[in-house]
Every structure is written in C-alpha cells, then in structure tokens.
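Researcher: Let's run the pair from yesterday's discussion. Sequence first, then tokens, for each.
Model: Starting with the first of the pair.
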Amino acid sequence: MARAALRFVCSSCGAAVPKWTGRCEACGEWNTLEPETPAPGVTSRRAGRSAGRGVDFVGLAGETPLPERVPLGIAEFDRVLGGGMVPASAILVGGDPGIGKSTLLLQAAARLAGAGKRVLYISGEESVAQIRLRAERLGLRGAPVNLASATVLADILAALDAERDVAMVVIDSIQTIWDETVESAPGTVTQVRANAFALIRAAKTQGFALMLVGHVTKEGALAGPRVMEHMVDVVLHFEGDRGHQFRILRGAKNRFGATDEIGVFEMTGRGLAEVANPSALFLAERHGNVAGSAVFAGLEGSRPVLMEVQALLAANPGGSARRSVIGWDQGRLSMLLAVLDARCGVKLSAQDVYLNIAGGLRVSEPAADLAVAAALVSAATGVPTDPETVFFGEIGLSGELRQVAQAELRLKEAAKLGFARAALPRRVAGGTRRIAAPDGIALAEYGHLSDLVAATAGRVPMEEDER
C-alpha cells in the first residue's frame, strides 16, 4: 500500500501546502508550517464519500431552556465562566509555563470533588506522585479527586467510556496526548487537532465538562492549530508576571456567557487565593504625592478595577528618545505623545518616556487615555495629580475628550475606595444623559486635553460640578 503523501499545514490558519516554505501564503505568518501525514483512507474526492442520512431543519421559534451550570466553588473562576461550567462543554485554559494553570485546575477539581461531584484529573506531564506532592503543598491531600497519568488517546477514551456520572475531566495538557493512528509526534498540529476533536466528542456524548490545558507560544498565543480554539466552547487565558503575585484569568471566548471577564488571583504558598477586591490590592502601595502618577478607573468585562498609571521622564541629550511601556499599548502611547505635542504644547520628543501599569495588569481599553495623559503631564511639570482623583476618558487626535461606557459603574468603585473626585470627558449638549455620580464624588469635566493640562499644571483651578 502506498504511503500517504506528506503535506505541511499552517498552525495559524490551517492552510495546507505540498512543501515547506518559510511563510504561509494564505495568512502571511512566518514559521507556522508543520508537517502532517493524512490519515489512511481519508480522501477529498466526492466519489469516495458514503451517502448521508440528511439533516433535520427547524425554525428559530421554540422553547430552549437555559444551560444548567455547575459552580466550581471558586468565585473568581465561576465569574469568568459566567456563573459556573456548563455540562458537556469544552474549556481551553492557556498560559505561560509555570504561571499556575495546573495549580488552578487542581484546586478547582478539589473544590468540585469536595461538593460530591465525580472529577477525573488526567496528566500527561506529571506522574501521580508529583500531583500528590502538589496537592499536599496546597492542603488538598484529602480531596476525592481521581488521578491518572496517561498520554495515549485510546487508553484515555476507553477509561472515560467506562466511567459514569462524571462531572468534570481535566486533561493536562492537550499537547502531550498521542494518537497512535496519526503519524506525527505529540504536540504537532495533526496530533493536537485530532486529539482535541476526539476528547470534545467524548465530552459532548457522555455529558461531562472537559478542561483542556494548552501551551502557549513565545508570542503568548495558544500553541497548536487555531481551529482548536473554534472547536471548544470557552477559551481562557491565564496571565501574570512572575515578578508580581497577581494572576489574571481572562475570558477570550465564551459561548455561554460574556467575554472579557476577568478573575483575579494572588499566588501564595498555599496556592492561588481569590482576590475579591482587586482595586484595593492594586492601589495598596500607592503614594499619592509623587509626580507622574494617576489612578485610572478601568473596566474589565463587567468588573470595575482601579489601578495606578505611572509615568517617568528622563532627559535624552542625544539620539532617538526611548519609549518603554509595560501593561499598555505602545502605539497608543506614541499617539498621546503626539497629541500632547501638537495640541497642548507639551514637548516630550527629547525625553525618554517610561510608562507602567502598576500591579502587572494589562489595560486594553481606550478609556485609559486620560489617566495616561494626566500621568505624563504630571511627570513633565513635576506637579503631582490630586491623590483623591480618578481619571478615565478617551482622547481623539484633535485633543478632544470622548466619553466611555459604564461611567457610573466606574464612579461607584471609586467612591467605594474613598476617592472624592473624578476627571472625565464633558457631556455633549443634547447628547448623553446626565451622569448620576455617587454621594461624595465631585465631577471635573473637560472638553479638551489642554484643559486637563492646565489644571494638572496648576495654572487654572479645576472646575468641579458638585453633585
């Protein structure tokens, strides 16, 4: 029998080509083509397909019950999932090596097993003895979790088929599982795609929730074929800086709930501890009388989070000025520096600019523009911002300030933490409704960035609208 022809498949877009090239012509990505041997008997010819039975179509109208959820017992984890995991769903958890993925899932498995549910934990990276040692460090030695160490897909599927009343199955990790019928090494595109499909099909058929741990590339994306992210129901990213104790569980996809929700954890000697009030923790070490600092009232999913934006300027006598950013978009910083220069007369082109979001959190929403601008102006003038003021708002290229969503939710979080004032964009006449500020919060509304520059530099008093 002739050997199946070797082809190369792009791990980013899934395009297949007969020979290897450095760049995928379909998506333009470099070094993403990996070898794949088609399974025996697989053909794309229409004549080789068997006659199907057809499918039944129904209308949009009809009664569909809401999915039943099973709480994991970890409030921050349940929050990101939308209130708990849904039976027969597939959840993919990715993150950097050593960030705490296995620790988090072992804790979730122990909580769920302690609630009387049957939980299976299958590891392809560690032995049972190693998992027991971690459980002992975390204080989970007595949890009724069923452990196994296996890498062969056929053995895992046979074991799952023999089990009954299983609530959750953890596979750590999908890159270590090996299908003997696929002629490629574990972790390759072909293996990961085939193994994920088989395990997800088993979860849908038998009704248990499947937790897949996925490795990430050096760029931070989930390793393996992108089609795997489309196959699963939920994609979660576990983020964090090893230099900080905080860990962020962020939802990137959720077919049963909202995306962009976050859960905040703190890495301790006893594992991952939930952080119910991350704003207080992110601002715990803030010093309000230092120039170059401003508090941003952000929003992560439906959760308001207050964090400190820090800016530092250093003279650069010659050469090109340096721009270093941690936790924010560097391109947006360049835009803000250009707006400050062209629209407000704040010249920073000859200075090195260092920007940091304290606490290791990464901010992506444009509402952080105003807080970043306030920190930059404060660092440039040497005048500290008001320590009792929070900032939020988007800045346009002409220097105008634009309103952002959920302003009242941000203000409530600021009032809860004792802030007395908030700097935000001015309402447009005849536009949005009046913002209902909480008791004790005074609003300073600005229409243009130059107004904030003048107020921060102390040249004019802040105009407050006492509510």
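Model: Moving on to the second of the pair.
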Amino acid sequence: MASGSPQSFQVISSLRYDPSLPDVVAQHAAQSYPEPRPTPYYLLPYHLDRLINAAQHFNWHHALQFLEQGLESFTSALDSFIPDRTKPWRLRIVIANKPGAGLTVDVNPAAPIEPLQLLLPFATDATQQSTPWRIYVDSQPTVPSAFTTHKTTAREYYTAARHRAGIMSPQEQAEVLVVNPAGKVMEGSITTPYFRRRGGSDNQDNPDNRLGWITPPLSCGGNAGTTRRYALAQGFCAEQVIPASELVDGEECWISNGVRGFIRGVVVLRQQE
C-alpha cells in the first residue's frame, strides 16, 4: 500500500458521461434523481463531494482550492476533456495536490449498457436484467485504512483481491467482495454491494417494503461510493453489518458503481478450479 505521503498517490473518482442520461432521468426518475438532473454526467455532484472529502481528509489545500470553486467550474473542467458529446465515455478523474492543481481526466469509451441501469432497481424493470455477474468473496482479509475509505490510485489491495478471485480483466462480468480482518464485508473491489436484509422485520419507516436490501456501513472500512449514496438517499437500501460467513452460495445480490450503474449479481462461494 502507498506510504500515505501526498507525493505517493492521487485522489480519483470514476464516472460515466452518457448523452442518454437526461432523457432516462426525465422519463423514469424525475423526482428521485439528485440535482442537477439535465446533465450527461452520472451523479455529478456526488463525485465532486467525494473528491472534496478525500482532499479534506488528506489536508490537500491546493486541491481544495480548485475543488471548492463549485459544481459549475467542475463541470466546465470535465467538459474540456469530452472528445465527442454524442457518445458515452468512462471518465477517470485524477486530482493531485500541487500549486495551481486542477484535474486531469482519462477518457475511454464506456462499455455499452442499458441506460435504465443508471437508475435504482426498484424504479425500473431491472430485475429482468441479463446474465448476472459472479460475485466472489476474497480469501484473505484487507485492513481498513484511509485508502479504503477514500478512492485513490493506491489500489494494490483491490488488484490483489481480484487476482486471488481469478478476475484478470476489467471486462469480466465478475466481482470480488473485500472483507476486513473481523470477517465483515467491506465493499466490492470496484463496486458497492447490496444483499437481502438479514434477520428481523423491515424498518417500520418502510411501508412499501422497498428497504429489503442492505449494504455494509462505512465503519466496516469500505468506500463512500457515489451510487451507494444514491441508493441510501432514495431508500433502495439500509446499512447493516454483513458477516462474510453468512453469505449463501447462489444468493441474489446487486452491485453498483459510477460507470456501470446497478448490476444484478449472484454470490459464488465455490469457484471452479
């Protein structure tokens, strides 16, 4: 893992630019998607907040001077990197801490998805989504740190977890759950996971029974992802500690991130040799 000095890593956030997003939001989530709604940047303000929180944690004053200029300035900076506004792109925003720091963006074609994936599953017919991803559980624990709480370029632990699960390509429809030394699920290597509620009845403040899903609390060591914030804010899920030992082979789950949205998954505890 990186040493923790400002020279050894950068703060990052990955999001999707998708020209179809404004229409999808207007048609299916006009009252349940965060402002500003008519933007092709997926969960845009959440990404800015995430970068600010990381810069504050690491005391990156130069980075904060740029980030705290606000959403309009942030959007203008991103716009300058988009090569073709008619196509979807995967943006990897990179923030360094140095005088005059702005941002750099690695832009690559985004994997094609059904646009409704960018919305919460209960707002769409997402349960009919195609082949679910395989969700493995890491065989070794990961110690929580500032580098699991905040997303940075220091991601060696996540890469190692993916390799232990046999995931060698970002194109594979597979994910691995990172587990802390207490045996609690922290997060996925590139996603936030959601599982069926364990034990007890649903929350009394959940009369329509949408809160049937849970995600690990940040106290378990995982990252405050943008889609996680969206799912919690709109009542798709609640926080609950999830012991890895309680996961069941073949159980349904969901995973999400800021590039692919929400993806149906299935837990696989017995990997093929």
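Researcher: Give me one sentence on the second I can quote.
Model: Residues 1-6, 200-209 have pLDDT under 50 and may be disordered.
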